[in-house]
Amino acid sequence: MITRRGFIQQTALAILAAAMPKPLSLFINKGRVFTYESPFFKLQLLRDRPEFSFFSTDSLCGRRFPVNLLLITDRQSEGQYESSINSNSIIYFSRKGQRDIPVWKISMQPKIFSIRTRWNKEENPDPLAITFSQKTNHCTLLGVMPEKNIINFPCVMHFPGMGSFRIYCSDPAVTIFYDADRDVKDPFVKIALSAADAQHRDITYRFDPVAVYPELDKIKNDVRFDGFKRNYINIFQLNPRIRALANNSASDACTFTLFLYAEMARHTPELVKGFSAMDLIRNTLDEYIGGMKGYGQVGYKGDAWKSKFDSSDSAPSLIISACYYIMDAKDNNWAKKNYAYIKDWALSMIATDKDHDGIIEYGYSGNSNSWNDKEFKRPANWWDTIGFGHDDAYSNALAYRACTLLVKVAEALGQPDDSYYFDAFAKKLKSQYFSRFYNPDTGVLGGWRSEDGQLHDYFFTFVNSVAICYDLIDIDKARQIMHTLLSKMREVGYIDFRLGLPGNLIPIADKDYTDHNPRFGYQKFQVYENGGATGCYVYYTIHALYKLGMRPEAEAILFPMLESYKMDAFQGYSPHSDMANDWKTWKGEGWGYEGFLVDNYLALLTVLDYSKSF
Known about the structure:
single chain; alpha+beta; four-stranded antiparallel β-sheet; 13 helices
């Protein structure tokens, strides 16, 4: 029941809110919450305890708040607090502590909000926790992790499709708790801010909205690139339990994808003062150097990587990532300290060339019908349901890139003999590559040549594009290959580039499919890796087209994808099933499982190619 006094109070507040300028509004809803909205964020806090009940942001200052990001629980108030509200803040006092010292004060301004906590000797409050629903948004916290679940300030909280906050703390000794879990009923990402105590008596946390992306004159004020701006750093997701970059904040670290993150990091502005995306690469490399195993390596989570061999693209990925870090960060101390590990990765990679023909090899034959349910095993690379084996065209392209980068790094570190050795192997690999993998019957590169000599060719878009990007194919032949691939797309009816691209344009034969579960594409073309559409690896196709001067063809793919990035179409779940949007059929039906797969976002890097093409 609303009293006359309450009615007058709510009416006055409503009039005040209506009278305020359009960019800013403030109101109290039903007496239980404090709500603040600006063009950058919309926040709502409960009056009876320091807890957010609505949290959303738009770093592009567009007042785009489509969802509440929080994981809402049914926790009841225990009556420990009472609050006081003024025009732009809410203050929480402990009912049993000193009434003149607020335990928490959350203050709002249009471009920032802050959370202050002061020590009350009669109170020992819990940290202020903010728990986000991972199914709603796969957010992440990015920063230096001195230990599991702990991140130093300053750091960045990123919400894919929405933007980011740079988070600062007034006390340099204070850290932030960070956790994420997808193996629970309600998958979550959680942060917690420590309350003041006897050692840290007055702490202020500040949240500054920001969109982190390269400032490019050609896209300024062009709304077609809003998805680029809101999602540019999506590829960086830090798993708090392993202190490493991963598929998402609660998913696997994949050794063979680190080089994708490093490729993006090279072109990423500073995340927050004193901390860069390249620092994330270095810190993740440190975990691998320290003995961590990722998916793609023998020993990962026991036998989660079901193979007797490391994938053929794992070592190249680590080498490329390390070289990018050394060359871009110019961190000679780290380079000298860790060069022996990088060299060991390279020597182990080259040692898989058992017959010394210049082509690295995977331990399984790759022969048709060699994949069976009696001994389930993973193939040679990232495309882990397709029977890549023995001589793998994709992994060899990465091995070539790794060696050419190591030539420069070894030379810079005063290792001329190593530089000569890696250069010799790279040249030998390149001399063999085209003849080993080119299929004159189709006009494109096949995916792998199995131990029995057969070339397995399914019009792999990514294999051909990566080889072109890494300079393994001469320009004229590269243009012919790309024209052939585009022509094949038209022939098979793939025309909706909003979905990204399929990895292969014709169905993988049963005899060459490793995972015999139809849910993962076995006997089901256009499902998952068997021709499913995804943003993963599309970067290389668009980049190759720009590299070859085929700008109209590149932008015919890029701009429909930008439309999808703007609509957050590569994340979340299909409305009619529990399948995720990281993989789709050619009709747009979801067949993914991550809910958010960072590999989908490397293609945003081709906006830099667009900017340079004028």
